[in-house]
Amino acid sequence: MSATLFYILSLSTVLATLMAITRRELVHAIAYLVLSFFSIALIFYMMGAPLIAALEVIVYAGAIMVLFLFIVMMLEMGVPKAAPKPFLRTWGPAGFIALTILVCTCVLFASGPGMPADGVKFISPRTFGHTLFSGYALAVEAVSLLLLFALVGALYLGRRE
Amino acid sequence: MVPFSHILILAAIIFALGAACAAVRRNVLMILVGVEVMLNAAGLAFVAGSMRWGMPEGQIFVLFLMAMAASEVSVGLALVVYLHRRKKTVDVDDYDDMKG
Amino acid sequence: MQKYITLILILPLIGALVNGVAGWKLPRRVVAAVGCASVGASFYFAWKAFSLMGGPVNFKLGDWLSVSWFSAPMEFHYDALSATMALMVTGVSFLIHVYSVGYMKDEEGYARYFTLLNLFVSSMLILVLAANLPLMYIGWEGVGFCSYALIGFWYKDTANADAGRKAFIVTRIGDVAFGVALIWLFYFAGSTSISVVNEQAVGSMPVSTATFIGILLLFGAAGKSAQLPLSVWLPDAMAGPTPVSALIHAATMVTAGVYLLMRMFPVIHLSETAMAVTAGAGALTAFYAATCALAQRDIKKVLAYSTISQIGYMFMGVGAGALTGSLFHLLTHAFFKALLFLTAGCIIHAMKGERDIYKMGGLMTKTPVLFWCFLAGALALSAAPGTGGFFSKDLIQAATLAQGSAYFTTLWVLSEVTAFITTIYIFRVVYLVFAGESGPAPVKTPRLMTVTLVPLAVMSLAGGMINAPELWGGTQRLATILASQSLAGSAHVTHEAFVQAVGAFLFAAGVAYSHYIYAVNPEARVKRAYKYPGLIAFLNSGWYLDRLYNIIFVTPYTRLSVFLWKTVDEAALDYSFDSAGTGLAKAGTLLRASVTGRASTYILAVLAGAAAIMVFFTWSAI
User: Fold this and answer.
1) Residues of chain C whose pLDDT is less than 50?
2) Interface test with chain B among C589, C600, C606, by most B beta carbons within 10 Å
3) Which residues are within 8 A (CB) of C130 and not within 5 positions of it... i.e. 6 or more apart?
4) Fewer Cβ atoms within 10 A, N terminus or C terminus of chain A?
5) What is the pLDDT of residue C439?
6) Pick from A86, A14, C615: which is nearest to B24 by CA?
7) CA C498, CA C260: separation in Å to the nearest integer?
8) In angstroms, rounded to a whole number, what is the distance separating the alpha carbons of residues C451 and C510?
């Protein structure tokens, strides 16, 4: 049952991402990307990571994509000027390289370790928070500093002359 | 659940799509979108690892990943705004002052 | 004794050093005095050493080349042959030095001239007094270099520099043969000392080796002495100052070849073939040069070809074994040829630089001193009975005839024909320059130049006294001295009276014939000249030998050089380097195309790198 669900969700993720990356309209692309993130959040929940699933929706789909939309709306970009080039010419090289990476990783992963005998272990937020703040408190501080830097940087870059 | 390698293959597919998007699209914002997709795929792989070995460390790293993605996106978009003010275009092919 | 010999060698060298280093600052008188005094003092010591000579003297001044298996010290050998040569070289050089003071009075490069002249004399003395072959080779090369420098003395005119270069290159070809013979002799005898080599050769050298070495030595001598086939440089060498022609190309350097053959005679004597080839080469060259001298217009070129011809006689003498005769002829030739050249220099000076004998005339009455001196030289050259030239040439011819074989008898006939032609060509010059009335008025010659002619004239006419044969009541002093040190060669002279009669007859006939052509009936001569222009051109250019060498050697070599230059060096090598350069530049331009400045290209490149790494991992995993 959960396996079928997983495959359906993975299909939707892939399709949504595919649509996202091939749209000419930016807002459409971002909308499809939000859909892709929702699917991934559901996959996360199925893999026993409820907190991460929630954070995926809140942070990624909620904050980051909204930020993207802000910028898209703010900049008047107009219609792309150049004539559309043939499909193979644009997507050919990158597609080939991406395909190569994909094939290699598949070959490498196909012979990886299998699943354990017992089922999926559900990591509750309590366990998650306990491990995070007891073992990785220093990393938390570092990440918060990172956010500070990003804040300062974004403020500086975005200032009006 | 599904075998571990299937999840990793899914992550690989999403990563490849994100890479292709970053390499091909001429709009700077779409390049950033491709980067986001790649980061997401990496996070998926981490959570899959966390599920496989039953340890929360993978998810903890995904948390950090998301924080980093957020900061990167904010700075990146600030740059896009700046570039748009300077060059009046977001076509990355027009940012070729380092040509030659 | 050793001191005298050392002084003979050192004094001209010191003169050269002083003039070379400081001569350009010293006044002309000092330069001339240093030059002449050094050679004059050398002559004085040569005379003293000659009068004190008891037997052969060998002494060593110091070590020079020395490794474990080879040593060539600075060893000098003084015997009758060297003594005579040293006397002749220093004596004639001294007179020519004095003459040069007058000749070069108004010329530039005064110090350079006297430096080179002194250096030449010292090199010649080293050559003559050396006891081993490498030391002789040094003298050999030294005279070659000085000859080159002096022929091209007025180097600002490229023709003169070309003549000097031609002389150097042609003699160099002979020097290679001499070098090979030197090394072969060392290989055979284990030493390069001349006396050691000669002793061992007489003891144990096989005849075939002696033949080869003899012919190599002949080739080397032919280069230095301007015999066929290497005679082409001497007529061109007349571009140099006349005293240089007199000293180097009449009396000294060109006799170095004869001296070499005389020194190595024990080796050459072992092989009949080598002797025959030497004699044949000498006789043939004598004939060739005499015919060419008949058609020359330049007075110095007549004398140049005459030198080639007379040295051919000396080679013929060596080939016939008559070393006494060759040395005797060498001495008399030095006197009368130097006399002829110096007089020619005076004549050219008197005619304001004109050298064409057909444009001169009537000098007999206008410059009687020059006439009598030139006539003395002409009589000696054409072997007028009683002159030095008569005795020496007839000694050689008698020795050739006395060999007896058909080959040598043919050579004798050839040499008598050559003697006849010799008389004609030199009296042609006498009549055209001195007789008649048609020439321009001469310029007065400096006293210094005419005063040196007189001793030479006396020596030319009276030089026969050195070795007058018993037939005429003489004592054969030269032959006695040489024989006492076993240097006299192997000839036995038999029909001497017969040969002398033939010689006298040919002389008279020659004078009569030339008198008839040039004095009695000039119009017939002019008419006949117009009938044979081809023959005259043939003889004038030296039987087209220059052209022949051009076709055989010079043109293919030049073509090869041009080919190597244009096709190999420029087209292939330069082009390959240039195209490597431009190819690299093009590759750089190609690479530049990848630096587009566009982010999409760079992102693609990063992904391509990642893909490559993945492929590598996959490859190594499966």
Assistant:
1) none
2) C600
3) C75, C76, C77, C136, C138, C139, C194
4) C
5) 65
6) A86
7) 31
8) 30
Say if CB C301 and CB C295 are below 8 A apart. no
Stretch B3-18: mean pLDDT, rounded? 91
In whole angstroms, give the CA distance from residue C83 to residue A127: 125
Contacts of C596 in chain B (CB under 8 A): 96, 99
Share the mean pLDDT of chain B: 90
pLDDT of C536 reads 81
Would you call B94 an interface residue with chain A, using a CB distance cutoff of 8 Å?
A: no
Report chain B residues whose CB lies below 8 A from the CB of A80. Answer: 26-27, 91
Q: Is the separation of the CB atoms in C448 and C98 below 8 Å? A: yes
- pLDDT at res. C144: 92
C-alpha span between C407 and C419 (Å, rounded): 19
pLDDT for res C491 = 61
Considering only CB atoms, which residues of chain C are within 8 Å of chain A?
Answer: 604, 607-608, 610-611, 614-615, 617-618, 621-622
Contact between residue C450 and residue C369 where contact means Cβ atoms under 8 Å apart: yes
Residue of B nearest to C591 (CA): B100
Contact A52 B62 (CB under 8 A): yes
* Disruptive mutation site among B62, B77, B86 for chain A (greatest number of A CBs within 10 Å): B77
* A82: pLDDT strictly greater than 70: no
SS3 C383: coil
pLDDT value for C586: 92
Total-model pTM? 0.71
From C400, B54, C29, select the one nearest A120 (Cα to Cα): B54
> CB-based contact (8 Å) between B48 and chain A?
yes
CA-wise closest residue to C543 among C160, C249, C284, C205: C284
CB distance C424 to C368 below 8 Å: no
Higher-pLDDT residue of B92, B41 = B41
Q: Which residue of C has its CA nearest to B34?
A: C603
Instruction: Please enumerate in sequence order all residues whose Cβ is within 8 A of that of B96, keeping only pairs 6 or more positions apart, or say none.
Output: C596, C597, C598
Please answer yes or no on whether A97 and C607 come within 8 Å at the CB atom. Answer: yes
pLDDT score, position C488 = 61
Selection from C303, C309, C307 nearest residue C288 by Cα: C309
Chain A residues touching residue C602 (CB < 8 angstroms): none
* C282 within 8 A of C315, measured Cβ to Cβ: yes
Task: Give the closest residue to C604 by CA, choosing from A13, B92, B45.
Answer: B92
Distance of CA C253 to the CA centre of its chain: 5
**Which pLDDT belongs to residue C306?**
92
Check residue C490 and give its pLDDT: 62
pLDDT given for residue C533 in this prediction: 79
pLDDT tens by residue, B77-88: 999 998 888 888
> What number is the ipTM of this complex?
0.90
Of B37, B20, B32, the closest CA to residue B72 belongs to: B32
> Would you give the DSSP letter of residue C322?
B
Q: What is the pLDDT of residue C473?
A: 59
For chain B, positions 7-36, list CB contacts with chain A under 8 A: 7-10, 12-21, 23-27, 29-30, 32-34, 36
Element (H, E) at B88: none
Smallest CA–CA distance from C610 into chain B, residue: B19
| All partners of chain C with 3 or more CB pairs under 8 angstroms | A, B
Question: C526-549, pLDDT tens digit by residue?
Answer: 777 777 778 888 888 888 888 888
Neighboring chain A residues of B87 at a CB cutoff of 8 Å: none
A31-40, A132-141, C56-65: the lowest-pLDDT one: C56-65
pLDDT at A117 over 60: no
